[in-house]
C-alpha cells in the first residue's frame, strides 16, 4: 500500500519539521538557555558590538585633533571574549548596562558628558548567548580601565574572577571621580574572586598566549591585552592608550584630562617599542573605521 506509506511519511516529515521549528523558535526567544559552549581547543578572540559614541567637534579637540584630521568623529565601543583551552576571559564590558538596553529596544542612549553620547542596540548577554556562554560561565574578566565606556556590565561578571590592579581599584571608588559610574560595579567592591596584578605583565592562562600589560596614565591602573593567536598573530587591544588612529600617526600629546598626561606619554612610547620588538598589531578599541572592518561574533579570530 504505497500511497498510505507515502502519506505516513509525509505526515512524519511534517511533524518533524514542526518540532524542529518549535525548538528553533524556543532557542531564538530564550538565548540565555543556549547549550554551554565546550572548552575551546584553540585560542580564539571574539569581538562584540557594545555600541558607539557620538563625539562633538569640541569633543574631538580634547584629543588635540581637528574634525578634519579625524574625518570620522564617532568611536566604536567593542567588548571582547578570549576563549582559551583553560578558560575564558572577558575584556572591556561596554558603555550602557544590558538591563537598560533591554528596556530600550530601539537602542539605548546615554550622555557621558557634554561632548559624548553613547548608543547601544545589542546586549552583551545576547551576544555571549549566541556563542553558547552565559556571564556566569566566564572564568576571568578584566577591563582596560574603569571609565564609564569600559565597565557598564561589570556587575554581570561578579561571579567570575576579576583580574585587577590596585591603582585602578583605588581610582574606581575614589571620591568625586566623575569619569566612572560605581553603580556599574557595586558587585565587585567586596568580591572574593579577585586576582591582584602587581607587576607589569600578567600571564592569564600561564602559557604566554594571553597577557595583560600595564600602560598607565589614561587612568592610574590602565592596561592593555595582548593575545597571541595561531593564525592571526599577536594582537594588542590597547584600551584607551589612543582613541583616534591620528593620535598615533601625528604624535600629538595625550589629552589634557588624562589621569597623568606625562605617564600616558611614557606608556605610549613604551608600548610602541614593545609592539615593534614583539611584532604585535595594535587594535585601537575606539577606532570606528578599523572596528567596522573587524569580524564580529559569532565569527572569531584564531
Ligand atoms: Zn574609552
Annotation keywords:
302 residues, alpha/beta, Metallo-beta-lactamase, Chain A, 5-stranded mixed beta sheet, globular, binds zinc ion
How are the SSEs ordered, and which strands pair?
Layout lengths: L1 H28 L14 E12 L1 H5 L5 H4 L4 E10 L2 E5 L6 H5 L5 E6 L2 E5 L3 H7 L9 E3 L5 H4 L9 E4 L1 H7 L21 E3 L4 E3 L6 E5 L8 E7 L3 E5 L7 H6 L10 H18 L1 E4 L4 H6 L9
Parallel strand pairs: 3-6, 6-7, 7-8, 12-13
Antiparallel strand pairs: 1-2, 1-5, 2-3, 4-5, 9-10, 10-11, 11-12
The structure holds zinc ion.
The site of zinc ion (ZN) has 5 residues, from α6.
Explain what this protein looks like in three dimensions.
This protein has an 8-stranded mixed β-sheet with strand order 4-5-1-2-3-6-7-8. It has a 5-stranded mixed β-sheet with strand order 9-10-11-12-13, covered by helices on one side. The protein has a single domain (about 40-295), classed as Metallo-beta-lactamase, Chain A, CATH 3.60.15.10. It is an alpha/beta fold and about 300 residues long. About 40% of the residues are buried. It has 10 helices and 13 strands. Mean pLDDT is about 90; it is low at about 5-30. Bound molecules: zinc ion.
Amino acid at each position: 500500500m504505497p500511497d498510505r506509506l507515502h502519506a505516513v511519511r509525509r505526515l512524519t516529515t511534517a511533524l518533524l519539521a514542526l518540532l524542529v521549528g518549535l525548538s528553533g523558535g524556543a532557542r531564538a526567544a530564550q538565548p540565555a538557555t543556549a547549550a554551554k559552549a565546550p572548552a575551546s581547543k584553540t585560542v580564539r578572540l571574539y569581538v562584540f558590538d557594545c555600541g558607539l559614541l557620538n563625539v562633538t567637534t569640541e569633543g574631538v579637540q580634547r584629543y588635540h585633533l581637528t574634525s578634519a584630521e579625524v574625518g570620522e568623529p564617532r568611536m566604536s565601543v567593542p567588548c571582547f571574549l578570549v576563549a582559551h583551552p583553560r578558560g575564558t576571559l572577558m575584556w572591556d564590558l561596554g558603555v550602557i548596562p544590558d538591563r537598560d538596553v533591554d528596556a530600550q529596544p530601539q537602542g539605548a542612549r546615554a550622555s557621558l558628558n557634554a561632548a559624548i553620547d553613547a548608543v547601544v542596540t545589542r546586549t552583551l548577554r545576547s551576544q555571549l548567548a549566541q556563542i553558547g556562554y552565559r556571564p556566569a560561565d566566564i572564568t576571568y574578566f578584566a577591563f582596560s580601565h574603569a571609565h564609564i565606556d569600559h565597565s557598564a556590565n561589570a556587575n554581570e561578571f561578579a561571579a567570575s574572577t576579576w583580574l585587577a590592579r590596585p591603582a585602578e581599584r583605588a581610582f574606581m571608588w575614589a571620591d568625586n571621580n566623575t569619569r566612572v559610574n560605581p553603580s556599574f560595579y557595586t558587585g565587585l567592591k567586596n568580591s572574593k574572586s579577585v586576582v591582584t596584578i602587581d607587576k607589569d605583565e600578567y600571564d592569564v592562562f600561564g602559557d604566554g598566549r594571553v597577557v595583560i600589560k600595564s600602560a598607565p596614565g589614561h587612568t592610574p591602573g590602565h592596561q592593555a591585552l595582548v593575545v597571541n593567536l595561531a593564525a592571526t598573530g599577536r594582537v594588542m587591544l590597547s584600551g584607551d592608550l589612543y582613541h583616534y588612529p591620528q593620535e598615533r600617526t601625528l604624535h600629538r600629546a595625550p589629552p589634557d584630562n588624562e589621569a597623568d598626561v606625562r605617564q600616558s606619554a611614557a606608556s605610549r612610547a613604551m608600548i610602541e617599542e614593545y609592539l615593534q620588538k614583539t611584532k604585535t598589531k595594535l587594535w585601537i578599541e575606539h577606532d570606528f573605521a578599523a572596528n567596522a572592518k573587524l569580524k564580529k561574533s559569532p565569527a572569531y579570530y584564531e
